Amino acid sequence: MRKNISGSSPFEPIIGFSRAVRVGNTVHVSGTGPVGADTADAPAQTRHTLLIIKEALEKAGARLEDVVRTRMYLTHVEDWEAVGRVHGEFFGAIRPAATMVVVAKLLNPSWRIEIEADAVISNAENTLQSSKII
Questions:
Q1: What are phi and psi for residue 58, nearest 5 degrees?
Q2: CB 93 within 8 A of CB 76
Q3: Nearest to 54 by CA among 45, 46, 44, 63
Q4: Tens digits of per-residue pLDDT, 27-65?
């Protein structure tokens, strides 16, 4: 079953996307920028973006601990280490697969970061079902 999770982005109705989509136990969080922290520095934008992602995950019934993959898009290569440190504050113990790419521009020219995330919600019921032989 599919569940669309709406966020607060003013671009959702214009572009036609959801902040996140949950299908079964998988949650895909759309590219998320620092809406509301547009003029902050890269670490603050990253922290703000990850908090938006955390909120979307929670609305979908997931947690940061369920994140298995992140993708970070930077507009300034010199931000990589500061952005990476903030990513580590959120995911240091979780250690999802991660990608960091430098791009020319993002949707909002003041954004220095945009992040996507994928999560897989694990629970005892699903573990039992996946171990059954059909």
A1: -65, -40
A2: no
A3: 63
A4: 999 999 999 999 999 999 999 999 999 999 999 999 999
Measured at the CA of 33, the angle between CA 39 and CA 96, to 5 degrees, comes to: 125
Residues near 42 by beta carbon (within 8 Å), at least 6 away in sequence: 74, 76, 79, 82, 83, 112, 113
Letter for the amino acid at 34?
A: P
Residues 11 and 28 sit within 8 Å (Cβ to Cβ): no
Residues in the chain: 134
Domain topology for 2-128: 60s Ribosomal Protein L30; Chain: A; (3.30.1330)
Specify the pLDDT at position 10.
78
The residue extents of the domains of the chain are: 2-128
As a whole number of angstroms, the distance between CA 101 and CA 121 comes to 26
Query: Residue 4: which of 74, 70, 60, 72 has the closest Cα?
Result: 60
- H-assigned helices in 1-134: 42-59, 80-91, 124-131
For residue range 58-98, what is the model confidence (pLDDT) as tens digits? Answer: 999 999 999 999 999 999 999 999 999 999 999 999 999 99
